[in-house]
Design brief:
Helices cover 14% and strands 30% of the residues. The chain is an alpha+beta fold. The chain is built from one helix and four strands. Strands 3-2-1-4 form a four-stranded antiparallel β-sheet.
């Protein structure tokens, strides 16, 4: 799996601005927070990783196209 295109990274930065809350649906990582965990987006970097501060204190990033997550709707 390669890096996302600059256009996709730009779209991810628009979709996931800092301080928006996301909810984890699935992540294939032994250090992943539990499914359903909420976290606050810190930033989206230039390779499209969505960096999140999770409610459990972890700061594990989300990988576009691999991890599943959604924006929390109020």
């Amino acid at each position: 799996m390669g890096y996302p295109s600059p256009a996709i990274v730009k779209r991810l930065k628009a979709l996931y601005p800092p301080r928006i809350t996301v909810v984890l649906d699935s992540m294939d990582d032994v250090h992943a927070p539990p499914v359903g965990s909420k976290g606050e987006v810190i930033c989206v970097d230039d390779i499209g990783t969505v960096h999140v501060k999770w409610e459990n204190g972890s700061c594990l990033g989300l990988v576009h196209g691999q991890d599943k997550f959604h924006i929390e709707r109020n």
